[in-house]
């Protein structure tokens, strides 16, 4: 992990010194353990502020659409597989231009879910977490524990299908195996195991604790509309209450807007204060998109989301 940090800093410093980009978006250490925060640097001497760890869970692609409007030059961005896929998607949707980006690619070993680590050591104040490719060393005030990386991985990292960046201008480490080892199609299994008549009850139970904070929307790189449908008043698509009808409308419409575009980056689940398994809904739609259209979002430049285009051979069995 330290090698990645050194190489990210070197790549960012060189890019700024050589004028390859005007600013670099990356990650800096958070104020407390198991946190990293987004940071923008525009001076080569600030490259030392950049870091890399298994707690860089925010998706930087979501910050670039606004930054692109303000920057007078290319924007550098530190990107692992899922973030690079989102960049490809935003390029395809006309929100970013490839020539305006300088991508510092990071082959990813998977991000950690801090809640899993905290659950493993309840009641203990975790001061720091050190990591290698296989093990986390969790340090407290009076003791340290070792935890296997695979036991702390975020669920989406276990089922990841593209851990290496799909586009990059500089690569800071040797490529890793593309997949995390899990079966992405099984994420949708909790819904599919229920007959249609029982799925509504299962959905209601899954989202019963939603407080409508909209954190899942706010961190999603796909949610870049200047006015979200939940904030529209003419017409009003969804109410502001915590009633199930309003909660369901919000999550179902947002998921439909992401269908064929979601890279399963997991930012929504990491941001949710209620620990709701948001991915189970988006993953069901993505599974259907893969089955019907043979498409995985953000894998190749020049591809448009399948639900934004029409082809004569599109599946139409649903038309009766």
Structural description of this entry:
- The structure is a single chain.
- By secondary structure, this protein is of the alpha/beta class.
- 34% of the residues lie in helices and 12% in strands.
- A hairpin with a 3-residue loop joins strand 5 and strand 6 (135-139).
- The longest helix has 16 residues, at 2-17.
- The chain is globular.
Short description:
The protein has 320 residues and is an alpha/beta fold.
Keywords for this structure?
320 residues, alpha/beta, 3-stranded antiparallel beta sheet
Radius of gyration: 20 Å
Q: In angstroms, what separates the terminal alpha carbons?
A: 55 Å
Helical coverage, percent range: 25-40%
Query: How many domain modules?
Result: 2
The major beta sheet can be summarized as:
5 strands, mixed
Write the layout of secondary structure elements.
Blueprint: H1 2-17, E1 23-29, E2 36-41, H2 61-70, E3 75-79, H3 81-92, E4 101-105, H4 114-120, E5 128-131, E6 135-139, E7 144-148, H5 149-152, H6 155-158, E8 170-171, H7 189-192, H8 196-206, H9 215-219, H10 244-258, H11 267-271, H12 279-293
Parallel strand pairs: 1-3, 3-4, 4-8
Antiparallel strand pairs: 1-2, 5-6, 6-7
């Amino acid at each position: 992990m330290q090698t990645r940090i050194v190489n990210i800093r070197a790549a960012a410093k060189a890019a700024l010194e050589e004028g390859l980009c005007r600013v670099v978006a990356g990650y800096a250490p958070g104020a407390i353990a198991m946190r990293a925060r987004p940071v923008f640097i525009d001076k080569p001497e600030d490259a030392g502020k950049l870091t890399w760890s298994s707690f860089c869970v925010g998706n930087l692609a979501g910050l670039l659409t606004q930054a692109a409007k303000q920057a007078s030059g290319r924007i550098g961005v530190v990107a692992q597989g899922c973030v690079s896929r989102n960049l490809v998607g935003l390029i395809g949707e006309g929100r970013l231009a490839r020539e305006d980006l300088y991508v510092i690619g990071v082959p990813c070993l998977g991000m950690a879910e801090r809640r899993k680590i905290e659950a493993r050591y309840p009641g203990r104040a975790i001061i720091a977490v050190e990591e290698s490719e296989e093990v986390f060393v969790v340090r407290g005030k009076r003791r340290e524990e070792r935890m296997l990386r695979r036991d702390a991985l975020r669920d989406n990292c276990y089922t990841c299908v593209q851990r290496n960046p799909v586009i990059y201008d500089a690569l800071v480490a040797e490529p890793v195996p593309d997949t995390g080892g899990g079966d992405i199609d099984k994420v949708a299994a909790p819904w599919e195991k229920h007959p249609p008549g029982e799925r509504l009850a299962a959905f209601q139970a899954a989202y019963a604790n939603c407080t409508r904070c909209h954190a899942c929307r706010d961190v999603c790189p796909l949610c870049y509309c200047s006015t979200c449908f939940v904030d529209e008043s003419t017409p009003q698509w969804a109410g502001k209450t915590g009633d199930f009808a309003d909660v369901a409308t919000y999550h179902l419409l947002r998921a439909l807007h992401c269908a064929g575009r979601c890279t399963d980056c997991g930012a929504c689940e990491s941001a949710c204060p209620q620990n709701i398994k948001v991915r189970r809904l988006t993953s069901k739609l993505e599974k259907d998109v893969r089955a019907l259209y043979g498409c995985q979002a953000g894998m190749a430049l020049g591809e448009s989301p399948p639900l934004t285009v029409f082809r004569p051979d599109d599946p139409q069995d649903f038309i009766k």
